[in-house]
Write a structure and sequence with these properties.
alpha/beta; five-stranded parallel beta sheet; binds 5-O-phosphono-beta-D-ribofuranose
């Protein structure tokens, strides 16, 4: 139901948090390393066929000149969520701006840089799917309630 793609295997340490969250909600997902620059044709092919494979949301992570989410969005009508990876030289500001500054007409829902963005991309995908899945909606309600209870139980 969700396709998670990332520009390099070096993104996996962060993006595994996204896949772990999808697994926690029981959301089936496929994951692939695909690059806007290094594998442009395979990326276009994978994204173009996503809807017919039953994918409902695409999550695309990339760092540096992070064009993967934008390129993905150009090839599908499915919602695309972009996760900017933290980069060594510019700490992910390059990734953030490359992902978020899409031209009007081709939207990418851009999350935060790094692990929080990876986690929230999964939660946002769950929220999108939950608009037409009451079981998933109940799981999301429970997740929020558990999170609230955990914070309120904190002692210092
Ligand atoms: C991007 O370049 C990838 O998404 C990764 O974040 C960054 C560095 O890739 P590697 O050089 O580690 O493969 O395309």
């Amino acid at each position: 139901m969700v396709a998670v793609i990332m520009g390099s295997k070096s993104d996996w340490d962060v993006m595994k948090h996204c896949c772990d969250m999808l697994t926690q909600f029981g959301v089936p997902h496929e994951k692939r390393v695909l690059s806007a620059h290094r594998t442009p044709h395979a990326t276009a092919e994978f994204i173009s066929g996503a809807a017919s494979r039953g994918v409902k949301v695409i999550i695309a992570a990339a760092g540096g000149a992070a064009h993967l989410a934008g390129v993905a969005a150009a090839h599908t009508l499915l919602p695309v969520l972009g996760v900017p990876m933290e980069s060594a030289s510019l700490k992910g500001m390059d990734s953030l701006l490359s992902t978020v500054q899409m031209p009007g007409g081709i939207p990418v829902g851009t999350l935060a840089i790094g692990k929080p963005g990876a986690t929230n991309a999964a939660l946002l995908a769950v929220a999108i799917l939950a608009t037409s899945d009451t079981t998933l909606l109940e799981k999301l309600k429970q997740f929020r309630a558990d999170q609230t209870a955990k914070i309120l139980a904190e002692t210092l």
